[in-house]
Amino acid sequence: MIKVLFFAILLAQKAFSQDTWDWVRIDCGSDTSYKDSNGDTWDSDDDYIKTGDNKQVASTSSSDIEQLNTLRVFSEQNKNCYTVPTPTSARYFVRAMFWYGNYDGLSKPPTFDLEFDGNKWATVVTNTTSFTYYEMIYATKGDSISICLARTRDQEFPFISRLESLPLPDDMYPQMRRDMAWFIRYPDDKYNRIWEPQIPPGLDSVTANFTSLDETSVNVPPDSAIIKAVEASATDRINLSFGFDNVSHLDHVEMYFTEPFLETSETRSFNVTVNGSFVNTTTPEYQICTSVWANLQSIGTLDIELVPTEDSTLAPIISAIEVYTVSQPLVIATTSQNDCKTHFTLKFFNSNT
Ligand SMILES: *[C@@H]1O[C@H](CO)[C@@H](O)[C@H](O)[C@H]1NC(C)=O
Ligand SMILES: *[C@@H]1O[C@H](CO)[C@@H](O)[C@H](O)[C@H]1NC(C)=O
Ligand SMILES: *[C@@H]1O[C@H](CO)[C@@H](O)[C@H](O)[C@H]1NC(C)=O
Ligand SMILES: *[C@@H]1O[C@H](CO)[C@@H](O)[C@H](O)[C@H]1NC(C)=O
Ligand SMILES: *[C@@H]1O[C@H](CO)[C@@H](O)[C@H](O)[C@H]1NC(C)=O
Ligand SMILES: *[C@@H]1O[C@H](CO)[C@@H](O)[C@H](O)[C@H]1NC(C)=O
Ligand SMILES: *[C@@H]1O[C@H](CO)[C@@H](O)[C@H](O)[C@H]1NC(C)=O
């Protein structure tokens, strides 16, 4: 699983490097800037932050990602901030990665806070077995984003291994409020989202008999994520559950469907409900990706059900899902009414890889 994830990230980077967008890529802790094997330039920290010390991570690191071999640690001040330029007026995708790698030989992976523009983004809990990362979409109001690492525990010093940002097209996720943060996993995504393959228990894996889509959704999920789907057995329903804190939050759900086979004598149709509320009736179409979305206020578990309609002869099917959770309004000087952020997201669909 971990291997697959590394592979996925590397592939995603590769696909993305063909585009000409204005990335900021920082290999934290690196003494020099350099070009990686894809020809992408990774900067050292110098242009973005003044505090901190560069450290080398032992070569026994569990990671294949080159940028995780160094880190920058902050042992002096409580809060240390990177200034990441955002020259384009756009929503930015930001990712921060952390790999402790026992750089200090103490086998004490720290816990600390990650913040952006004065807002809490995440509590980073590092460990000795794998790296961790956080991703966010954020509509910045100024010409830079401040990404800060804050000490929250005595003698546990924040560090960071890799930090990157890129602008996203305006028309993606039109129903989402504009300031968001998310985690998602999968290879070959044009927008570098990482989509995580998963087969929920009780569901069957299905691969479509086509290799690319004729039409897709405005959010451009990667074709490979849509072509593989999960299906209920017989005409059962599909139940999906996402656990969140018992705190009231706004959720945004995007679900993606396609009909994997051209079967003219059969009908596949199902109702989508989110936490018991009807959202839409869906009939997936061959070689076309359709999506159904919902915004809702919820507390705790988010339950999604796909229930076959009376005339359906085939079971419900789903290719991919994104769940975003928006937290409290942002704290920004130049604030607007609908500022908010997501602090937790999931994405899943089925894949055999
Ligand atoms: C280490 O952190 C990763 C990423 O947050 C997590 O998936 C994994 O379960 C953690 N491992 C342990 C042993 O806590
Ligand atoms: C899905 O949940 C409904 C109630 O919420 C339950 O009646 C049904 O048995 C569940 N189906 C499966 C396949 O888990
Ligand atoms: C949320 O509340 C329910 C019921 O009160 C409880 O069973 C569950 O463990 C709580 N979940 C969390 C994450 O606190
Ligand atoms: C997919 O299935 C349809 C209908 O059975 C068939 O016409 C088409 O040739 C198949 N395509 C491939 C690539 O197998
Ligand atoms: C419901 O389905 C219709 C037809 O596919 C689509 O136009 C509409 O946007 C969908 N609504 C939601 C909330 O997903
Ligand atoms: C959604 O349903 C779950 C399970 O029934 C419940 O715990 C949660 O509070 C609901 N969320 C709402 C009503 O927003
Ligand atoms: C599906 O939704 C439609 C429209 O709300 C409703 O009339 C129908 O009873 C629903 N079917 C099932 C099986 O839930």
TrEMBL record:
Name of this chain's protein: Malectin-like domain-containing protein
One Gene Ontology cellular component annotation held by this UniProt entry: membrane
Domain Malectin-like residues, every copy: 26-326
Primary subcellular site in the record, as a coarse category: membrane
Statement: the UniProt record of this protein carries the keyword Calcium: no
Domain of life: Eukaryota
Signal peptide interval: 1-17
Membrane topology field: Single-pass membrane protein
Compartments reported by the entry: Membrane
Alphabetically ordered keywords of this record: Membrane, Signal, Transmembrane, Transmembrane helix
